[in-house]
């Protein structure tokens, strides 16, 4: 769930530019944790930028990219078609707290600045564990709302329905059967982590 203001931003060229800039600096440290030729679920795909970016970096990868907002699904489908990746990326509506996939369906799950938009984000973490195969990886990029005052702007514009710290997220991961392999912190309270399902 995102506010109208944030949705407008998420559809903008500015967002796409900033996202690509961030991804080029952040993802190289985490891509080695993905298995070969992975089948990946992206939760909260927005414009589809995460799946498109990772498809370019992970050889022979295939994706299901979901979003709760129907108009964002439409935007993501358009962007996937523009890049010619529709044979590798399937975009559809989906709810992070009630994933419509069988147990142990995916090699990896990715959530990029999405969990703070999810009411009951701990259930989303549990659902990610359910649909991951044993040894599958879960990559999260999000905001530690206790690490900096700046990310709280997201609360002001109505974008965040859940606020949390990395400590709370890491505890939820552990309780869902994950072992955190890597955590990196960035400016403005952003963090990126990768965990493996044990």
Explain what the structure shows:
The structure is a single chain. This protein has helices spanning 4-10, 13-26, 49-57, 70-83, 121-131, 153-156, 166-175, and strands spanning 39-43, 62-67, 89-93, 106-112, 132-143, 178-185, 190-197. It is an alpha/beta fold and 198 residues long. The protein has one domain: 3-Layer(aba) Sandwich (Rossmann fold). It has a seven-stranded mixed beta sheet with strand order 3-2-1-4-5-7-6, sandwiched between helices. The model has no long low-confidence stretch (mean pLDDT 88).
What's the layout of helices and strands?
Blueprint: H1 4-10, H2 13-26, E1 39-43, H3 49-57, E2 62-67, H4 70-83, E3 89-93, E4 106-112, H5 121-131, E5 132-143, H6 153-156, H7 166-175, E6 178-185, E7 190-197
Parallel strand pairs: 1-2, 1-4, 2-3, 4-5
Antiparallel strand pairs: 5-7, 6-7
The CATH class is identified as Alpha Beta
Mean pLDDT: 88
Per CATH, what is the topology? Rossmann fold
The parts where pLDDT drops under 50 for at least 5 residues are: none
Q: Total domains, how many?
A: 1
Major sheet strand order: 3-2-1-4-5-7-6
Number of strands: 7
- Rg (CA only): 15 Å
Q: How large is the share of residues in beta strands?
A: 25-35%
Backbone structural class: alpha/beta
Q: What distance separates the N and C termini? A: 30 Å
């Amino acid at each position: 769930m995102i506010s109208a203001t944030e949705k407008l931003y998420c559809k903008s060229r500015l967002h796409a530019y900033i996202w690509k800039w961030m991804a080029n600096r952040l993802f190289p440290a985490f891509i080695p944790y993905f298995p070969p030729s992975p089948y990946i679920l992206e939760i909260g795909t927005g414009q589809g930028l995460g799946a498109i970016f990772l498809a370019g970096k992970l050889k022979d990868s295939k994706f299901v990219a979901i979003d709760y907002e129907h108009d964002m699904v439409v935007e993501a489908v358009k962007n996937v078609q523009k890049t010619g990746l529709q044979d590798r990326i399937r975009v559809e509506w989906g709810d992070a707290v009630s994933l419509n996939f069988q147990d142990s369906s995916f090699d990896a799950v990715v959530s990029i600045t999405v969990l703070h938009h999810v009411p009951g984000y701990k259930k989303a973490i549990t659902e990610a564990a359910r649909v991951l195969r044993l040894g599958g990886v879960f990559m999260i990029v999000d905001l530690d709302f206790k690490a900096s005052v700046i990310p709280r702007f997201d609360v002001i514009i109505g974008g965040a329905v859940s606020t949390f710290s990395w400590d709370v997220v890491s505890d939820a991961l552990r309780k869902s059967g994950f072992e955190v392999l890597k955590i990196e912190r960035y400016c403005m309270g952003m963090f990126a982590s990768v965990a493996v399902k044990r």
